[in-house]
Amino acid sequence: MTLPLAPAAERERAGRALLRRLQERPRALAALLERGAAGIAALLPERPPWREAAGPGGGDSGGGGRGDSSSSSGGGGGSGDSGGSSGGDSDGSSSEGGSGVRCACGEPGCARAAEAVAAAEAAWARDAALRLEALGWTPEALAGAVWAAWAAAAPLPDPEAALRQAAGPREGERRASGPGGGGAALAEWLAEAAEQGRLHEPGPEFHDIGVELGRPDAAGEPPGGPDPAPWAALLPGVPGAAQGLALVAAQVRQRAERLAAPLRGKPR
Q1: I need a surface site. Which of 1, 51, 179, 227 has the fewest CB within 10 A?
Q2: Rounded to the nearest 5°, which phi and psi values hold at 95?
Q3: Residue 86 sits in the same domain as residue 115
Q4: 226 to 50, 145, 245, 253: CA distances (angstroms)
Q5: Which of 18, 32, 17 is nearest to 140 (CA)?
Q6: Using H for helix, E for strand and C for coil, what is the string for 190-253?
Q7: Beta bridge partners of 102
């Protein structure tokens, strides 16, 4: 079965018009990227290309070219097609004139022509990807063309530098800012630390952090508990709140002292 298409120049014009529409509608482009051709189905042609090829008269007939059947059969010599039933008219129009649909068997009254046209029109209405392909586009190619058009409309002096700035530093560059300042130097630093048994120790940047673990003054008395006045005002219905908090603070100090004791003998 042969179904005529619109001329190539006309399809190219329609494809360029669709491209311009997407350039002006970023949301439509987002729908195309998310859902494929179905996302822009409203922007795709509704009439099948064989209807466009048939002209205004053929396109107005809705059911397989019946509107053109009388003229086509009359132009074909006034045989039984013009005076036949509606089914014969439909077959004649599909194979000889009007829509330009022709069956491979070559018979002018082939009954398969109308069925093929109906199936093709159903597929055309159902499949948005088919309608997009008829304009010479795939979803990926159309999205790439929109991006290329946007880039051409607002060129950057140095696109690569702008891309790097937007993407931020690479993972390797972030790591290079660590010990040694580079990949080779970092490897040497790790090898040296492993040889000296220092892999469990933090890197040089952590040496800036200091914690004083000196012994408390033996002559001084341990710090007292919290002031009971604020706690009594905060919790008026809880007697002994300040005393309870003082016990908790004392236990925390004792535990901290036990944890700090083994560290006092180590060199700083």
Answers
A1: 227
A2: -100, -25
A3: yes
A4: 91, 71, 7, 14
A5: 32
A6: HHHHHHCCCCCCCCHHHHHCCCCCCCCCCCCCCCCCCCHHHHHHHCCCCCCHHHHHHHHHHHHH
A7: 2
Which range of residues forms the domain containing residue 240?
A: 226-261
Q: What is the pLDDT along the chain (268 residues), one digit of tens a residue?
A: 777 777 888 889 999 999 999 999 999 999 999 999 999 999 999 988 887 765 554 444 333 333 333 333 333 333 333 333 333 343 334 334 445 677 788 787 788 888 888 888 899 999 999 999 989 999 999 999 999 999 888 887 887 777 777 666 655 555 555 544 555 566 777 777 777 777 666 665 555 555 555 555 544 555 555 676 777 777 777 777 777 777 888 888 888 888 888 877 766 5
Do 95 and 133 fall within a single domain?
Answer: yes
* HSE toward the beta carbon, residue 64, CA cutoff 13 A: 23
What predicted TM-score, i.e. pTM, was given to this entire model? 0.44
